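Re: the request from the purification team.
They wanted to know what the chain is likely to look like in 3D before they choose a buffer screen. I agreed to run a prediction and write the result into the notebook, where they can find it.
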Amino acid sequence: MSSEPPPPSQPPTHQASVGLLENPRGRERSPSPLRGNVVPSPLPTRRTRTFSATVRASQGPVYKGVCKCFCRSKGHGFITPADGGPDIFLHISDVEGEYVPMEGDEVTYKMCSIPPKNEKLQAVEVVITHLAPGTKHETWSGHVVSS
């Protein structure tokens, strides 16, 4: 008998040798009713707003307010109306101009109701009229400007 130890066993390097290719589709999944479909966003955007709602909003009066908050990564924020009342929802697709709204910016806007119940309002055609003093503003392309 030989006193040599057996050669060290090598871990298998080929996928077929470890059984990864037994099921080429991966694991079996139960069929999902949403598989392959995109769930629509509940946020009303310029793209998803109906034509009639857009026309009604564009024919409405222009309001003034101050940007309460805006989160570029989330894509929405709120405006505090100058005449008081509840805050107005603001979506990123409804901001006109080259600057990202910041807290304290004075804005003008028109209003549109939010479906499906049309109980709440959304600001559309939002234009920044005065940048908040002493803040750094960012353009949509990422350039930072001090005001």
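For the purification team: The two ends are 89 Å apart (CA to CA).
Please add any questions underneath this entry.
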